[in-house]
């Protein structure tokens, strides 16, 4: 016996003892086991005697044939000598002496005997092999239930027989062309198929032994409660499980040790990386239980409720993982099989159940569309539990699901269609841009959403929440590009269409039609409402809609989910080269390949080509577009107010009494009558506008209005008319009323007018004086022109 054989035998004895006598109570089984072994041994001795008798008879027959051939050979030699010695004529062949009949008969008989002897010799070799195979098979089958170690020994014997014949390649046919390609169940195989017969015998015994041991393990597990909550109170059930576990481990060990022989003979029983055989069969009971839940008409099998059947898997693991971590792990550690984490390996063996369920429901997922998002979310939670609670570190089922191109495409299309439908339903409703919250619910500097703005933000955030659990950056970017960005683009295009339509309508026509055609809004002012207010409400609702979505996009741009996506596209751009701008990632998004997936999902931490990318983001261009659109609306609001106010100042511009000396003294405290209707209306408009836009935007609009009024008052009034003192005072009161924010001039015209108009005054001195007076927008030339229009001042200067 070689050292290897001795080690294997020692291992077999050790496993036998560990499997059958793990507890004190199991020692009581020794007598029964010895009796079984003695009975088996006696049967084997009888079989051996029968085989020896057969072999001895064949050997005697072979010896007799050999002796006959020997005698015939001697007779032939004598005959040859007699013929050659009696010949005296050298020209006559010795074989032509007599008629040659006896010689030819002898040669023919000798050839027949030699052929028979060869056949018999080969037949004896094959019979010996067949006898050994049959004895091993019979021994293995007799030991399946009574003596696991005897079965393992017989299985090992078959492996040895296979190794001997596979290496010798003894497949020579008994007679040329007489071998068949198969063998009959009614008799032994033809010699040319001996190797195939041995291989099939090994396969049969492996299958039978594997099935018997697995059945014993399954029966013992059932007594322990598997795969429900385990009950280890029965020592007999635990001992039976340990014994069956040891048998399966021994069968696995012998097969692994013979992997080279089996591979050389073209026989595959176990993969090199296969998990321990006992754990495979332990997972089989779980598979049967889960088929009952997952592939029947039970409620736990609903495709649209993955949380129901996934909870069954988690519940099963909670029941049996403690048993795997303690008892089963000790059994695995006690073998010479590859050392593994029993818990983790078992979870890997169970997950194909989940994969099969997903494949079973695949067609329904594709038809359902958005149900895929629900499945993905539940599967992500399931894997999270596996990794955080059960410390699973194997492959991701979710990743394999998302690798299904047709399934993922169906999900993307369903997200896109659902988002478009939600958007179209909202914008088709009456007044989609109407603000949905009262003014007092939000601060002046808080964006106030319209119904459409809130729907857009909710739809985009819902999509993002559904795909946030997707591990692949490439898949998330594809969902972002296909399902989210088009909604934002549609919003921008619809608002641009509204702006274009509004811009085609003259403000004069708006004032004439009043508020009948204006959009409705909520307002808290009780002052008389100008027709302009309703139009401003329409404009500011667009402004608030854009602002609300812009604020949301800005928040998204800084969230972890989108920061990761931006980092991925930046790393891809860095890997592709300096000419690539990460902001252009959408251009070829639909054509991304596996190479792009690697760059996006497994970046190699390439140095960023442009540091400005760090300040960007996935939504950067969208935010820029929204800001430009918001500014366009703000410009339109400013234009509407300014044009309306200037239009109402037409009569004031044409006023011709500025130079009159006899202005009624009672008017010293009053504004011009031409402004009496405008100012209350303008005040009402500005108060309403202040509640419609943020304070910063309102200040900007107010400054633009003041600039427009300044330009109008200077160019259209002050520079267009001459003023008396009383007319100038009236104009000053009007200016103060129109521009309440203007600075008061601390000095009278009489005090600083001569300095400005003096031909000796330098421009530099005049600029300093005007700055002191708070006149910053007018040039020195304009100030001098205004002063020159003061009639009484001109007379004083002249005197």
TrEMBL record:
<keyword id="KW-0175">Coiled coil</keyword>
<dbReference type="InterPro" id="IPR007528">
    <property type="entry name" value="RINT1_Tip20"/>
</dbReference>
<protein>
    <submittedName>
        <fullName>Uncharacterized protein</fullName>
    </submittedName>
</protein>
<feature type="coiled-coil region">
    <location>
        <begin position="27"/>
        <end position="61"/>
    </location>
</feature>
<dbReference type="GO" id="GO:0070939">
    <property type="term" value="C:Dsl1/NZR complex"/>
</dbReference>
<dbReference type="GO" id="GO:0006890">
    <property type="term" value="P:retrograde vesicle-mediated transport, Golgi to endoplasmic reticulum"/>
</dbReference>
<dbReference type="GO" id="GO:0060628">
    <property type="term" value="P:regulation of ER to Golgi vesicle-mediated transport"/>
</dbReference>
<dbReference type="Pfam" id="PF04437">
    <property type="entry name" value="RINT1_TIP1"/>
</dbReference>
<dbReference type="GO" id="GO:0006888">
    <property type="term" value="P:endoplasmic reticulum to Golgi vesicle-mediated transport"/>
</dbReference>
<dbReference type="InterPro" id="IPR042044">
    <property type="entry name" value="EXOC6PINT-1/Sec15/Tip20_C_dom2"/>
</dbReference>
């Amino acid at each position: 016996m070689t050292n290897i054989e001795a080690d294997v035998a020692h291992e077999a004895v050790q496993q036998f003892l560990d499997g059958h006598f793990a507890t004190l109570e199991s020692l009581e089984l020794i007598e029964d086991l010895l009796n079984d072994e003695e009975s088996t041994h006696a049967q084997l001795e009888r079989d051996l005697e029968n085989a020896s008798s057969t072999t001895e008879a064949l050997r005697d027959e072979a010896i007799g044939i050999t002796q006959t051939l020997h005698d015939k050979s001697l007779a032939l030699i004598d005959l040859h000598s007699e013929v050659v010695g009696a010949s005296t004529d050298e020209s006559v062949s010795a074989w032509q002496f007599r008629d040659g009949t006896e010689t030819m008969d002898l040669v023919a008989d000798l050839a027949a005997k030699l052929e028979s002897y060869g056949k018999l010799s080969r037949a004896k070799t094959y019979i010996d092999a067949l006898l050994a195979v049959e004895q091993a098979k019979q021994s293995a089958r007799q030991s399946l239930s009574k003596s696991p170690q005897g079965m393992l020994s017989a299985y090992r014997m078959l492996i040895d027989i296979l190794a001997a014949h596979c290496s010798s390649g003894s497949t020579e046919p008994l007679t040329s062309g007489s071998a068949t390609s198969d063998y009959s169940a009614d008799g032994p195989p033809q010699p040319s198929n001996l190797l195939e017969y041995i291989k099939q015998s090994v396969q049969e015994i492996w299958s039978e032994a594997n099935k018997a041991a697995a059945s014993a393990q399954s029966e013992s597990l059932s007594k322990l409660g598997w795969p429900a909550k385990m009950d280890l109170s029965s020592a007999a059930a635990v001992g039976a499980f340990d014994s069956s576990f040891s048998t399966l481990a021994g069968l696995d060990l012998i097969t692994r040790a013979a992997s080279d022989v089996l591979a050389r003979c073209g026989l595959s029983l176990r993969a090199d990386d296969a998990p321990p055989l006992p754990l495979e069969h332990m997972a089989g009971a779980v598979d049967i239980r889960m088929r009952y839940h997952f592939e029947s008409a039970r409620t736990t099998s609903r495709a649209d409720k993955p949380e129901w059947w996934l909870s069954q898997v988690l519940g099963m693991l909670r029941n049996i993982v403690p048993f795997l971590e303690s008892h089963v792990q000790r059994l695995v550690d006690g073998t010479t099989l590859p050392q593994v984490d029993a818990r983790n390996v078992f979870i890997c063996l169970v997950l194909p159940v989940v994969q099969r369920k997903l494949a079973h429901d695949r067609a329904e997922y594709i038809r359902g569309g958005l149900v895929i998002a629900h499945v993905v979310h539940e599967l992500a939670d399931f894997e999270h539990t596996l990794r955080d609670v059960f410390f699973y570190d194997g492959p991701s089922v979710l990743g394999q699901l998302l690798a299904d191109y047709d399934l993922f495409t169906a999900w993307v299309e369903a997200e896109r269609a659902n988002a478009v439908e939600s958007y179209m339903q909202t914008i088709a409703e009456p007044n989609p841009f109407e603000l949905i919250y009262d003014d007092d619910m939000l601060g002046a500097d808080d964006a106030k959403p319209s119904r459409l703005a809130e729907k857009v933000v909710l739809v985009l955030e819902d999509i993002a929440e559904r795909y946030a659990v997707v591990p692949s950056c490439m898949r998330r970017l594809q969902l972002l590009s296909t399902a989210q960005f088009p909604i934002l683009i549609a919003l921008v295009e619809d608002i641009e269409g509204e702006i274009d339509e509004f811009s085609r309508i003259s403000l004069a026509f708006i004032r004439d039609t009043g508020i009948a055609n204006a959009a409705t809004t909520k307002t808290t002012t009780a002052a008389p409402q100008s027709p302009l207010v309703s139009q401003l409400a329409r404009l500011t609702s667009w402004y608030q809609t854009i602002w609300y979505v812009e604020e949301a996009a800005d928040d998204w741009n800084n969230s972890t989910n989108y920061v990761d996506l931006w980092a991925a596209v930046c790393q891809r751009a860095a890997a592709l080269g300096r000419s690539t701008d990460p902001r252009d990632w959408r251009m070829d998004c639909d054509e991304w390949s596996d190479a792009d997936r690697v760059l996006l999902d497994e970046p190699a931490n390439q140095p960023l080509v442009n540091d400005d990318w760090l300040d960007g983001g996935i939504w950067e261009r969208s935010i820029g577009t929204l800001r430009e659109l918001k500014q366009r609306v703000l410009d339109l609001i400013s234009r509407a107010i300014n044009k309306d106010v200037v239009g109402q100042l037409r009569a004031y511009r044409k006023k011709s009494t500025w130079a009159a000396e006899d202005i009624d003294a009672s008017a010293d405290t009053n504004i011009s009558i031409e402004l009496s209707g405008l100012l209350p209306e303008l005040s009402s408009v500005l108060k309403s506008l202040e509640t419609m836009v943020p304070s910063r935007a309102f200040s900007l609009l107010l400054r633009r209005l003041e600039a427009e009024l300044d330009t109008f008052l200077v160019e259209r009034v002050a520079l267009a008319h001459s003023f008396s003192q009383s007319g100038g005072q009236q104009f000053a009161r009007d200016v103060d009323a129109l521009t309440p924010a203007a600075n008061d001039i601390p000095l009278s015209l009489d005090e600083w007018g001569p300095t400005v108009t003096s031909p000796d005054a330098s421009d530099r001195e005049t600029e300093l004086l005007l700055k002191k007076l708070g006149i910053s927008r007018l040039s020195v030339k304009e100030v001098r022109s205004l002063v020159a229009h003061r009639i009484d001042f001109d007379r004083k200067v002249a005197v």
